Amino acid sequence: MFDQARTTLTTIRDLHRFAVSRFQAAELFYGHGTDNAWDEAAYLILATLKLPLDRLEAVYDAKLLPGELDQVLTTLQTRAETRKPAAYLTNEAFLGEYRFYVDERTIVPRSFIAEIMAAGGLDPWIEHPELIHRALDLCTGSGCLAILLADYFPDAQIDAVDLSPDALDVAEINVADYHFGERIDLLDGDLFEPLEGEKYDLIISNPPYVDAHSMDELPDEYRHEPEMALGSGEDGLDITRRIIESATTYLNPLGVLVVEIGHNRDVLEAHYPELPFVWLDTESGDGFVFLLTREMLEEAGY
């Protein structure tokens, strides 16, 4: 059908209708930037043609050159047949207005923490952003949250740690793109391992948190992402527990810890009944990201 499309389709409107039909027929999964076939097709067409992503209607009836048509159809066919996430086909992903380079060396950026920061969700706990001088991003992946930290807290020096050298290579590209090379230090290591003696005003992490059962049930799109960036033991909380139980050592007296855990709230609260987790609001609910202060951790014996 894609071969036939190369000889019959002419406009972006034609391509968009065709792509949506093919994506629906392939029963693709969406969750790496868009959440439906219509938006996914529009994004891939516009991104491949290097057109503004918010101007589909303005170019809807534009005719494509043969080379452009072939390039777009190749991208659409790859998405439909391999189920590779769109971000890996265009080498870009977005967190709000922030654009990041991405490839299969790292997980596609997506985080409730980015949404919380943009909405001022940390403001009640960080009254004076100018007093955030040291911040840490654990499991930094592509470096996206470290870059947001550097942007939101202009007086802060940021450490960003990941266990994957490949992911850190991608993070280095993004740090350079945002000209934060002098403020963000990328460190290769296992969580707090390379940080002996360091103290931070703010620690954030969007660690792997998929449980073993869910890992077995993931849609094919997620199979293209590094497995180590997704799974975290039988209940999905192996890494989160290590962060909680070590964080006090690395937090300043007024320090704050913020961690994303997906749908694991009930499991986490059952494991730590002594901890007064503060659950931060997101558009999808308030059970995905928790906040703890150093004082809360110390009072609970950590």
TrEMBL record:
List the catalysed reactions. L-glutaminyl-[ribosomal protein uL3] + S-adenosyl-L-methionine = N(5)-methyl-L-glutaminyl-[ribosomal protein uL3] + S-adenosyl-L-homocysteine + H(+)
Q: Which SUPFAM superfamilies match?
A: S-adenosyl-L-methionine-dependent methyltransferases
InterPro entries listed in its UniProt record: DNA_methylase_N6_adenine_CS, HemK-like, Ribosome_uL3_MTase, SAM-dependent_MTases_sf, Small_mtfrase_dom
Q: Does the keyword Transmembrane apply?
A: no
One molecular function GO term is: protein-glutamine N-methyltransferase activity
Q: GO cellular component terms?
A: cytosol; ribosome
Q: Which GO terms describe its biological process?
A: methylation
Assigned keywords, A-Z: Methyltransferase, Ribonucleoprotein, Ribosomal protein, S-adenosyl-L-methionine, Transferase
The cross-references to Pfam families, in alphabetical order and at most eight, read: MTS (PF05175)
Superkingdom of the organism of origin: Bacteria
- Annotated Methyltransferase small domain ranges read 133-214
Query: What EC number(s) would the UniProt record show?
Result: 2.1.1.298
Entry similarity comment: Belongs to the protein N5-glutamine methyltransferase family. PrmB subfamily.
HAMAP family for the chain: L3_methyltr_PrmB
Q: What does this protein do?
A: Methylates ribosomal protein uL3 on a specific glutamine residue.
Q: Which protein are we looking at?
A: Ribosomal protein uL3 glutamine methyltransferase
Q: Which organism is it from?
A: Chitinilyticum piscinae
Q: Which gene encodes it?
A: prmB
